Amino acid sequence: MKHIVRNALLSxxxxxxxxxxxxxxxxxxxxxxxxxCGACHGADGNSLVGTFxxxxxxxxxxxxxxxxxxxxxxxxxDAEKKANTGRAVMEMTGxxxxxxxxxxxxxxxxxxxxxxxxxxxxKIEVQVNSGIKVDGLELGExxxxxxxPASGVPACTGCHAPDGKGNIxxxxxxxxxxxxxxxxxxxxxxRAGDRKNDGDQSIMRSVADKLNDAEIAALANYIAxxx
Length: 227
Description:
This protein is mostly helical. It folds into two domains: 2-112, Cytochrome Bc1 Complex, Chain D, domain 2, CATH 1.10.760.10; 125-224, Cytochrome c-like domain (Cytochrome Bc1 Complex, Chain D, domain 2), CATH 1.10.760.10. Helix content is 44%, strand content 3%. It has helices at 2-10, 27-33, 35-41, 60-75, 78-81, 101-112, 136-146, 157-160, 180-192, 203-208, 213-224; strands at 125-127, 133-135. The protein has a two-stranded antiparallel sheet with strand order 1-2. Strand 1 (125-127) and strand 2 (133-135) form a beta hairpin. Helix 9 runs antiparallel to helix 11 (213-224). The longest helix has 16 residues, at 60-75.
């Protein structure tokens, strides 16, 4: 039964989760449980290290799904981990293992209620496939707002909104202000298939598969300052 329930949970993607009930978390209770998270993600969910994501303002549904997926992967045997669609985050090993569903809901509510601090974009150049160096901010904005019709990349605004604040009720996370290092790492993970908890429709994997290294770097940098 545990195996069946686990697989059912892990089969839920970003689209499927929009049809579920709202998370029933208690933000005040979550604040009392968040100490273990603060070391990496910051007491208010605004991490100081680029490789650790900011959790502030990401939305309850998204946060709950990520923690549920990470917990499920952590509790699997090595053989099962190779087959599931959970989310492998080695730095999180053991941290969520003993938490209840209510604990996760409370943490999601707490961090969702925090205010995101912008990381900020930088003036960068990226080298495209032709070997030409182009304005990274301009390229990042163009891909975010219009995609890349030539390679089939859709605009990011469709799910994450023009201002980068996402579609919280639908479970699409806020990207605005996130660390560029973290965004770049996740896009590369989706492209490589190392992260696969984006649902049966493989929304993010299908998008990231069409992005080259220059586009990923430009997009991540632009999103960091989007507001």
